[in-house]
Amino acid sequence: MSQSPSTDTSANGTSTERKGLECEVAVIRAPIDIEALNRGAVHPACGAVLTFSGTVRNHHLGRPVVRLAYEAYEGMAEAEMRRVAAGVAEKWPDVRRVQVVHRFGEMDVGASSIYITVSAPHRPEGFEALRYVIDRIKRDVPIWKKEFYRDGESEWLHPEEGCCRNHLHLEDSEASSAPPKN
Fold it and tell me: How high is the pLDDT of residue 40?
């Protein structure tokens, strides 16, 4: 995914530049190359590189999970993730680089299904931007998740279903990352 900011390779990822922000987004079916993303996240103007790896966990609401599958209309999912990533520039203009890779297809427990990097001059805006990106993707991008359980059953989950009763939603995230009121 090492592309120049103006390169557009829509089938395998897109890199665009908006207001000084470099965004790279990709939808893939192979394992995510985390090391390459980490190398690509480094930006000379940034002292904070933050990462998020969403991994397949071994349970959901008390049921043992053996694997899961993510599916989507990949072109639409990629376009929506690109929109979310580019939206960082409006909220955090100092953030310089955002990379998002989402894997689709079946994955075993422990596999990374989504990997996000944010490069910012300082950590506060980097953490806020990272949380914004993952929460917006979970809320806005049309992705379907199917869980396969140890007992042989499987089920498709609603995109907004969390892992537990107190699962964080975007509104909670935006409230906690809002600047303090004077």
Answer: 97
Q: What is the pLDDT of the chain when averaged over all its residues?
A: 85
Q: In which domain, by residue range, is 70 found?
A: 15-175
Return the closest-CA partner of residue 86 out of 24, 13, 151: 24
Q: Given a cut of 50, is residue 17 above it in pLDDT?
A: no
Number of domains in the chain: 1
- The packing angle between helices 123-140 and 170-177, to 10°, is 160
Strand, coil or helix: what is 111? Answer: coil
Enter the pTM of the model.
0.81
Q: Rounded distance, CA 157 to CA 178, Å?
A: 30
Flag whether 59 is in a domain. yes
**C-alpha closest to that of 85 among 30, 33, 132:** 132
Phi, psi of 38 (to 5 degrees): -60, -40
- Which residue stretches of 14-91 are H helix? 34-41, 74-86, 88-91
At 179 the pLDDT is 44
Report in angstroms the alpha-carbon separations of 88 from 22, 119, 151: 10, 11, 42
- Name the CA dihedral angle for 139, 145, 147, 148, rounded to a multiple of 10 degrees: -170
The answer to whether residues 117 and 41 touch, using CB atoms and an 8 Å cutoff, is yes
CATH label of the domain that carries residue 124? 3.90.1170.40
